[in-house]
Amino acid sequence: MSDLTLYLDLLSQPCRSVYIFAKANNIPFKYQEVRLFKGEQLAEDFRKVNPLCKIPALKDGDFTMSESTAMLLYLANKYKTPDHWYPSDLQKRARVDEYIAWQHTNTRPHGSRLFWVKAMTPYLLGHEATPEKLNPALSEFNATLTAIQNKFLQDKLFLAGDEISIADLVAFVEIMQPTGSGVDVFEDKPKLSAWKKRVEEAIGADLLNEAHEALLHLKECQPVPPELKERLKARLEFFTR
Ligand SMILES: N[C@@H](CCC(=O)N[C@@H](CS)C(=O)NCC(=O)O)C(=O)O
């Protein structure tokens, strides 16, 4: 029995990256669900694993850690996953590190903003986002995707070279977050669309579909308790400020 426990809710984008990576590499782990819409990340027991009250979190024996991208590197190193995921070649590895560093202030916040505006507005407020709220989020995300296509992907097959790496997985899952809420972000980006297909082929559609199922069925989620709804509405206000 593995000592590795992953604390996840597949509604969360960084949780999906870690889940897909572990599954794609047959890394044995215990799946501990922490339901965001029930506020379980705030529970006393979970605070012992991650005092920051965020998921994903990882526990490996007595060792605990937060931050999805750091976890991906921990898992790649610990389980010696195939080299292409986090290449030993210095410059290919640097390309992976480069994207991971960049996305923290680009794909991740811009994708989250678009997701919250497009999908969480109807979920929490019962109506679609107005164009005044939606359009700036769309153009910000669009500029981020253009940067991924032109600066990171260029004419390569994957972000770090000819094979899929952790950078592609992180980017793919981040891009799918708002795409899952019905926005076609690939419309005028042929290179990025072709890259998306290659990532799907490399990881496998079944695993990707399974990991994204909760996100695609967001509308069917149980309503959140009133105190949590206020917390989520404050978050939505932050994204639509
Ligand atoms: N930088 C962190 C982000 C973690 C994060 O923001 N997780 C969200 C879910 S996507 C969360 O746990 N939110 C709970 C809350 O804020 O109460 C990572 O990559 O792991």
Question: Overview of this structure, please?
Answer:
- The chain is an alpha+beta fold.
- The chain folds into 2 domains: 4-81, Glutaredoxin; 90-239, Up-down Bundle (Glutathione S-transferase Yfyf (Class Pi), Chain A, domain 2), CATH 1.20.1050.10.
- It has helices spanning 13-24, 44-49, 68-78, 90-103, 107-125, 131-153, 166-179, 190-203, 205-216, 226-239, and strands at residues 4-8, 30-33, 57-60, 63-66.
- Strands 2-1-3-4 form a 4-stranded mixed beta sheet, covered by helices on one side.
- It is globular and about 50 Å long.
- Glutathione binds next to α1 and α3.
Q: What general form does the structure show?
A: globular
Strand order of the largest sheet: 2-1-3-4
| Rg, nearest Å | 18 Å
What is the domain tally? 2
Give the N-terminus to C-terminus distance in angstroms. 47 Å
